[in-house]
Design brief:
The chain is of the alpha/beta class and 435 residues long. It is built from 15 helices and 17 strands. It has two domains: 283 residues, Mur-like, catalytic domain (UDP-N-acetylmuramoyl-L-alanine:D-glutamate ligase, 3-Layer(aba) Sandwich), CATH 3.40.1190; 132 residues, Mur ligase, C-terminal domain (Protein-Tyrosine Phosphatase, Chain A), CATH 3.90.190.20. The protein has an eight-stranded mixed β-sheet, sandwiched between helices. The protein is globular, with a radius of gyration of 21 Å.
């Protein structure tokens, strides 16, 4: 076993032992022991239910195209843990993961600072960015916002992309409650960009921003987006008029995400000026695997990590134009803690057949139970092993039909890691898939 593999074992043992445990104090103390690295670069903090990873990726691409040295911290990864921590086009290396994990363990040992898996990675990212002298780090919230490990940063601006019903066991079961948690990233005196929000969520976030003296920049009021075509958009507002922007990510919902990213750039242009040319080049070049990712044409094969109702709704909205009349055969798995029945009801009417599988047992929902919800709509097969499920589905699908894999980023990651050509996989894929 290599040192990297031993390090991964230790990290994933933390996740198994500690699970979700939200407290900012541990992260702040660990960072203090390591010289407060998160205070040594400009940061942009991106939260929300759906779209936050895409917005972060777009900001990273545009800032890098402008010549900045840009860090990007996101979660989860699809194939390799190193995907989570990037500078420019490169990921943190395996030896650096080993060295920084050991350093964090030494800094916190015997001091009552018992970090969780996500907290170790967050501290690691900030140390890495500081030592590699990034100009700016784009930081995606892990879960929620108020008590998320990333919320130790004091960003130049924050963004909240969308608010939906997800992770209700931790964040609350109403839009208002979830907005209150996600609104925890709004900082005193710092601008906050709002994406497309329901009134119940906006009202809460507006109140929080007012209490903290944070300037609100809101879609529809302060900036606007118009879609010219599936891959081209116009942006207007905040002193900018940008026409005919090409976008490297599929889906009309990504136009909202692009608008949010552009509004963030506009909000911080005094600190991080970016010209029109790098904006165009960055948006056109951005890649964010596992989101409406077409990985084969015959049969048409689409991987999408939609894992909640809002994500599935966006996927369903795009499928008719992508499928162009092809029969759809779905590979589906979902986490047990998701409200998956409405997801099934949204997807099932489009399907000619479904294979239901499982990922990450026991966290994954049982395939047999999920399959029962599909049965009223179309033929269903249960195959708990995802690779056997994929083989069964691909063997039965004709070249003029379509396959869609959806319901879980872990399912998409498993497919990238095992059955797809290496050229289609995100990042460095030499290791096994981990949650």
């Amino acid at each position: 076993m290599t040192e990297y593999q031993r390090t991964l074992e230790w990290l994933y043992a933390l996740e198994a032992a500690k699970g979700m445990d939200f407290k900012l104090e541990r992260v702040a103390l660990a960072l203090q022991r390591l010289g407060d690295p998160h205070r040594r670069f400009v940061s942009l903090h991106i939260g929300g239910t759906n779209g936050k990873g895409s917005v972060a990726a777009m900001l990273h691409a545009m800032l890098a195209a402008a010549g900045y040295r840009v860090g990007l911290y996101t979660s989860p990864h699809l194939v390799e843990l190193t995907e989570r921590v990037r500078i420019g086009s490169g990921e943190i290396t395996r030896p650096e993961v080993v060295e920084l994990t050991a350093e964090i363990r030494r800094a916190t040992a015997g001091r009552g600072i018992d970090l969780t898996f996500f907290e170790v990675l967050t501290v690691m990212a900030f140390v890495y960015f500081a030592r590699r002298a990034v100009d700016v780090a784009v930081v995606e919230v892990g879960l929620g916002g108020r008590l998320d490990a990333t919320n130790v940063v004091d960003p130049a601006a924050a963004a909240i992309t969308t608010i939906g019903l997800d992770h209700v066991q931790w964040l609350g079961d109403t839009l208002a409650a979830i907005a209150a948690e996600k609104g925890g990233i709004i900082k005193p005196g710092r601008p906050v960009v709002f994406g497309r929000l329901a009134t119940a969520a906006y009202t809460v976030l507006q109140r929080l921003a007012g209490e903290r003296g944070a300037r609100i920049i809101s879609l529809g009021a302060d900036y606007r987006i118009a879609s010219r075509s599936a891959g081209e958009l116009d942006f207007e507002g905040l002193g900018w008029q940008l026409r005919g922007l090409a976008l490297g990510l599929r889906g009309r919902h990504q136009h909202d995400n692009a608008a949010t990213a552009l509004a963030v750039l506009a909000a911080v242009r005094d600190v991080l000026p970016v010209g029109v040319d790098p904006i165009r080049r960055g948006l056109a070049a951005v890649r964010w695997p596992g989101r409406l990712d077409v990985v084969n044409l015959a049969p048409l094969t689409i991987l999408d990590g939609a894992h909640n109702l809002d994500g599935v709704t966006a996927l369903v909205g795009e499928l008719p134009s992508l499928l162009a009349g092809r029969p759809l055969h779905l590979l589906f798995s979902v986490m047990r803690d998701k409200d998956w029945r409405p997801m099934v009801e949204c997807l099932a009417p489009l399907c000619a057949s479904v294979v239901v599988t499982e990922v990450l047992p026991p966290r994954g929902a049982p395939a047999a139970a999920v399959a029962e919800s599909f049965r009223p709509y179309c033929p269903v097969t249960v195959e708990p092993d995802p690779l056997d499920a994929w083989r069964r589905l691909t063997a039965a699908t004709r070249a003029d039909e379509a396959i869609v894999a959806a319901g879980s980023l872990f399912l998409v990651g498993a497919l990238y890691a095992t059955v797809l050509p290496a050229t289609l996989r995100p990042g460095d894929t030499r290791g096994a898939l981990h949650p």
